[in-house]
Amino acid sequence: MIVVSDTSPLTALLTVGEAELLPKLFNEVVIPEAVRTELLRNHADLPGWLRVEAVVNPAEAMRMTEVVDKGEAEAIELAKELGADRLLIDERKGRALAAQEGVPVIGLLGVLLLAKRQDLISSARALLDRLESEAGMYLSAELKNRALETVGE
Question: pTM for the full model?
């Protein structure tokens, strides 16, 4: 399974030291060059398992920058070009644009639920709490509780 990631979910996981969940859940984790540039602003090193690829059609990505930032636009375009199984993205506008472009999405919350279901983490709630307090992730209490109920928490 191939997942292309936007910056925010990776930054959050890197911040709390849990980025290693991604290669355990997905065969390949790919980012476009713009996402690499954004990540390197806040993280000195990127994991070796993270593959960086240039988009083949930068004009198509540029078209999308009318709606989303460059990293999101390149991530959506790269996911299309690679036929990725999922695009890992949290921003509402980016998720909506990806859906319009026919790209299936998963958010960081979805990744945590998958990790819990595969017994890669002991508590989705504890990791969500860390992501909120240490990485600035925000979810409404209602969404958080509904999601945690699906994994018995």
Answer: 0.94
